[in-house]
Design goal:
heterodimer; A: mainly alpha; MetI-like fold; two-stranded antiparallel ribbon; 2 strands; extended; disordered C terminus; B: mainly alpha; 0% strand
């Protein structure tokens, strides 16, 4: 009896939190479907907002840019970390500590600090550094660095990389071959999963927003700013 | 031969070093150096930027507002997430899976879209505001969304999924046998949580709190979308110095950024210190 009551209590807590978290999402969606909401219930169901949005070429451009900005950094950063890990694991295990420190620094400079620093340093630098997309991609690489490092590290630990390496070498494989042909395939699936789990959260818009503020003044409309504007713009259009 | 080999493998380090050097180390060093430079770009070493921050009311209030919002939203978010994670852990099964996927989904819902959702819910012509006006519920009708309280409400929203996602795995480390053991020795469920559960979870809770604090104090997009430059908080004041429309002052902005960085490092260090103390106590 007691057990059952407790189960209901827990279920209730989960329900309340779940509804609380989903509510703004659902409401935003609902809001986009109606033309007017000035009394308690919305009026005038219409999909015009979406139709307009999907015909807008800016929208598709911004979606493309957003995809580019969220995929390229993850790939770039994973490749860079893997290459570095190869050296650290195979040749210079002593560097592991330094690498870990470098890869945890982004935690302390998260949010607004890193993009602002990058902007302060490169805003007036020659191309390609002053290119906003380039800046964004590289800055985002640093944002995801701790997560990528942790993912690669965990996977290497999970397959007992040093031992695997020893075993491969005993059987006559070179160090290079052992790492790229034996260890890498073993950890690929793990890295893929970790790549999908990325918290592509506020960070993206923090990054884009800060650099773009001044970019717009120069007549160049940055990537995700457009996207962010579209995001709310889409619903605003629907509102009309 | 040996030497040639050593040079060859070092090339593999290059991409990582270039990336980290140009976009992590160099920017941070430059901003720290800049914060000690006099305003206007002249060369020299000075503390005037820091003195200005700690003597001007505007920046003082920015620091206090940021700290207040970050601490409160983290504490409230953590409390809610704790009970959520506890319920998910005790319930288990499908309910937990569904709850986890909701958390995963909404943890991506922050920044501009989140601010927008709150504007249509509680803004000047928001749905709840209208309902409040119709039904004469003063609290809803005049909800102060564009203020510290409003900002806190939106922050709490994105803090809850973050904290819950970090806490649920920690709850997994509590073994069912411990509960049975406490029960066998005559302890109640409350004794179990206060004497066993919470102490075991403490490191995770503190770690989660420091992650949440850093997340909240440096959040920019949500705040900017909601209050623009009208509310004084640190991230907004910092970006203003670099991309502002009125006056730009990168040196002062650098100093503000260093203050923010120090606050985040401080939260991490305090967390470490407490954990170390705990560990020592346990070993003693």
């Amino acid at each position: 009896m007691h057990k059952k009551k407790k189960g209901i209590g827990n279920g209730l807590v989960l329900w309340i939190i779940g509804i609380y978290l989903l509510f703004p999402l659902l409401l935003t969606f609902l809001y986009s479907l109606f033309t007017e909401w000035i009394t308690i219930l919305p009026e005038g169901f219409s999909l015009n907002g979406y139709a307009e949005l999907f015909q807008d070429s800016y929208f598709w451009q911004s979606i493309g840019r957003s995809l580019l900005i969220s995929i390229v950094p993850i790939v770039l950063c994973t490749v860079a970390v893997l290459l570095a890990m190869y050296v650290v694991v195979v040749y210079l295990p002593g560097l592991d500590k330094i690498m870990r420190t470098i890869c945890t620094i982004p935690y302390a400079i998260q949010g607004v600090i890193l993009p602002i620093s990058v902007l302060g340093l490169y805003a007036n630098a020659p191309e390609p550094f002053s290119n906003r997309v380039f800046m964004l991609v590289c800055t985002y690489c640093i944002v995801v660095l701790p997560y990528i490092y942790q993912g690669v590290r965990n996977n290497l630990n999970a397959v007992h990389a040093p031992r695997l390496l020893e075993a491969a070498q005993m059987l006559g494989a070179g160090k290079f071959y052992a790492f790229w042909k034996i260890i890498l395939p073993n950890i690929t699936s793990g890295i893929m999963v970790c790549g999908k789990l990325f918290p592509d959260r506020t960070d993206v818009s923090v990054l884009s927003h800060a650099p773009v503020g001044s970019a717009c003044q120069r007549g160049y409309c940055g990537p995700v700013r457009r996207d962010a504007a579209d995001f709310s713009g889409s619903f605003r259009t629907a509102e009309r | 031969m040996k030497k040639k080999q050593s040079i060859k493998y070092l090339f593999a380090l290059l991409p990582f070093l270039i990336l980290v050097g140009l976009f992590e180390v160099l920017p941070v060093i430059s901003i720290i150096v800049r914060s000690f430079m006099p305003q206007g770009g002249a060369i020299g070493v000075t503390l005037e930027n820091y003195i200005r921050i700690f003597t001007t009311k505007l920046y003082q209030s920015a620091i206090w507002n940021s700290l207040f919002i970050a601490v409160c939203s983290s504490a409230i978010g953590l409390a809610v997430a704790f009970f959520g994670a506890k319920a998910a852990y005790e319930k288990g099964g499908t309910a937990k899976k569904i709850f986890m996927s909701i958390l995963n989904m909404v943890s991506n819902f922050s920044g501009v879209p989140l601010a927008f959702a709150y504007i249509i819910m509680l803004g000047n012509t928001g749905v709840f505001t209208l309902i409040g006006q119709k039904l004469r519920i003063g609290f809803l009708a005049e909800f102060p969304l564009y203020s510290v309280v409003g900002l806190m409400i939106t922050y709490i929203y994105f803090q809850i999924p973050l904290a819950a996602l970090l806490l649920i795995p920690a709850f997994e480390s509590i073994k069912k046998e411990w509960k049975d053991a406490v029960g066998l020795l005559g302890g109640s469920s409350r004794t179990f949580w206060f004497k066993v559960g919470l102490p075991v979870l403490m490191p995770s809770i503190l770690g989660t709190f420091s992650t949440m604090f850093a997340n909240a104090i440096s959040a920019y997009a949500t705040a900017y979308a909601l209050v623009m430059n009208n509310l004084s908080i640190l991230p907004i004041r910092i970006s203003e110095q670099f991309v502002g429309d009125v006056v730009q002052n990168p040196q002062l902005g650098g100093a503000l950024a260093v203050v923010l960085m120090l606050l985040m490092v401080l939260s991490i260090l305090i967390n470490e210190k407490i954990l170390q103390g705990n560990r020592r106590k346990r070993h003693a």
